[in-house]
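Changelog note: in this version the structure field was regenerated for every chain. One regenerated record is shown below for reference.
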Amino acid sequence: MESTDKEIEPRNGDMGVVPPTTRLDTTLLFPGPRQAEWDIMYYALGLQGRGSPIHTPDPPNAQPVEYRKQGFSIGDVILLSSRGRVDFHFNTCVPAGSPFNGRPKHIPQGFSPLHPPLDPANIHDYAPFQGHTVLNGRSVRKYQIQGRVPGVLFDAVAEEMAILTIPEGVKSRDVIDVSCFRKYIASNAIAWYKFINEVHDRYATNGDLRLVVGLDRCSAWSRVVTSSVTVEIPHDDAASTKSLSQFGVCVNSGGTGVLQSSVNGRPVMDRDGVVYQNQSVFLRTLNISVCDEIWTKIAEEFRPHVETYRNEMHPANGINELLLKQKPHAKFAITQDNDWISVLKPDDPCLPAASEFLSRILEVYNVCEEDDVVFLEYRPEVLYRTYLKHNHDTSLTLALWSPTIVAVGAVGYLSRDDGKFKTLFNARAPRDSTARGVHSLPALRTKIVPKMHREKGLKDRAFDLFGLLNLGRKSDPPQRVTFPLKVGENAAHLYTGNTSHRRFECDHLPMEWCRSNIEKIIEIYGADHNITRGDVVLVTGTLDTQDYALFVSACHREGSAAFEVGINPRIGQPWGAFLSENNGQFHSKVSRYRGPWETVLVSCFRVASNAIVLSG
């Protein structure tokens, strides 16, 4: 279903005459809109950024009591059914005979668990919500309803709300680095799809298979779900009324971690009344799709009945489909819920459409292909720019993941392809440019103020390593600098030698120059460089250094990393090296000893609408 970009709200300024509305009997026009409880809560609570909200959080009674006491677990292979239930099949992290796995008939023949086994240090346990917690979710989305007459569509607006109350808080578990599952899934995905459909007699379609890598558990919960759907009925141009049809739903539900058993077909609570923290209110999964060629072969062997209503709401289904089109030689697409969660925006009225999700994802992720699998990895230059902080001049807001020589007065932009800074010309000397039309631009006349920053003591330069460590060095540099890594938090760090800060003496002249000439700059360079006025910046200050070490990570365990300065390095060799004391996925860059002075931080102006703002 397509999503709207703006919430539907009445505005006080809308003073036009609104035609009267009438409500009609629509049974002959279209079937009543589907308002299943799980659909409503998924759209409403999906925006909370915790993964898939689960309609029935308690584990199935058919599983062994040991499994039920624990609840759904990391490594579970599941489907999310169209009725909102978690359809558990088997667990990939324990042996087939374990009570924490599925029943023997639910485990594929020849099954073997993940090898090497999942390292306990690769699991993060934490408590995101402590004590009494209330999560309020709201979604407003536009979609269309198929009429009873073929080809006739009716526009509808659904406003869905869900209130999830958790009296005693939540405990969460997440796999830190999910790449350990990738090859294992690719080796087994086809067999799993065939087993679930042919042996378990399910109706899984491509993209429905999921492996749990994160969850939020509680001991008790309650939920209120409401939905209001308004359908507009087209009217004759000559009609003076606007016709609407409205449909509403309200559902209350709740549960606790007391085990149940079935006696004569009726649920009976455990006599001991022990309450377990086994209610999984959110699950985060690896989402598994295969390419069209493989799926066609699977479908030829097993052709399940496809229900009229299909569960299309999970964002990963559409994202995986689009990724496989981008990488046509890949056999599998494996993405994690955190991929789409990370690009949600606070003002999103509803879960975006797959195309919008992918557009956002491509701004911050690289599409990678390895061992026939397409997957996503954070673009290091985006992470670095976003999470780096420093104790230099506060105007230096733009961090360069690819240090280069940037002059004060440079007019340029960050390349979308590689994140490098591209200089178009210098505002202080536009006549030096070879581009046609630049000569007509006036030169920016303002002084540049240079300032050197020499060695500071280690204690003076160290500051909150939570976001960044930026340390100077003495004439005899420290052999090793260690900084902490916090699990679940992105890390960006910069370590430099001596630095030089150059900046314009004043700001008002550069601001006025930028405002007066931006349209001409876009006229000259916009089409050739595929840039708009919001992309172009005027560099007003630079921080340059000969020695630098850059580090960024979006996936690491609790621990530390270190940078070791080389002892008596030769010219052209790396200034030092990062030493990882922590398993994870890191990116780093280190300058060459006695290499050129390059820019690592920039202050700049850009034009946003009609305002001049600092760019970062």
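Spot check on this record: The chain has two domains: 21-377, 382-614. Residues 21-377 form one domain.
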